[in-house]
């Protein structure tokens, strides 16, 4: 699954275009490397999102194509 789509489905980012902008600015790391919005994410990958002065570190647990709002938080585990 594409990184920008995953971030939107998991509701870590509100819109897919915002996820793309974050990736284009180099503010998303995937397994220790700066990621592009088209990068593929798989189960077990670790993401670090840099939002201004704070960062969110998560591990990917699932990558379903369709997810309900209530189930979005089960797609990842926070590592903070």
UniProtKB/TrEMBL annotation:
SUPFAM superfamilies referenced in this protein's UniProt entry, alphabetically: Alpha-L RNA-binding motif
Keywords: Protein biosynthesis, RNA-binding, rRNA-binding, tRNA-binding
Residue ranges constituting the RNA-binding S4 domain according to the UniProt record: 1-64
Keyword Oxidoreductase: no
Highest taxon of source: Bacteria
Gene3D superfamilies, alphabetized: RNA-binding S4 domain
InterPro entries in the cross-refs: RqcP (IPR025490), S4_RNA-bd (IPR002942), S4_RNA-bd_sf (IPR036986)
Pfam families: S4
Family named by the database record: Belongs to the RqcP family.
Function: Key component of the ribosome quality control system (RQC), a ribosome-associated complex that mediates the extraction of incompletely synthesized nascent chains from stalled ribosomes and their subsequent degradation. RqcH recruits Ala-charged tRNA, and with RqcP directs the elongation of stalled nascent chains on 50S ribosomal subunits, leading to non-templated C-terminal alanine extensions (Ala tail). The Ala tail promotes nascent chain degradation. RqcP is associated with the translocation-like movement of the peptidyl-tRNA from the A-site into the P-site.
Summary of subunit composition and partner proteins: Associates with stalled 50S ribosomal subunits. Binds to RqcH, 23S rRNA and the P-site tRNA. Does not require RqcH for association with 50S subunits.
Name listed for the protein in its UniProt record: RQC P-site tRNA stabilizing factor
Species, as recorded: Bombilactobacillus folatiphilus
Lineage: Bacteria, Bacillati, Bacillota, Bacilli, Lactobacillales
Gene: rqcP
């Amino acid at each position: 699954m594409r990184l920008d789509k995953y971030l939107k489905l998991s509701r870590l980012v509100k819109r897919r275009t915002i996820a793309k902008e974050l990736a284009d600015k180099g503010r998303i790391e995937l397994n220790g490397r700066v990621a592009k919005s088209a990068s593929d994410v798989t189960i077990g990958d670790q993401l670090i999102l840099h939002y201004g002065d704070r960062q969110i570190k998560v591990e990917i647990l699932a990558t379903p194509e369709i997810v309900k709002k209530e189930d979005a938080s089960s797609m990842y585990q926070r590592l903070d």
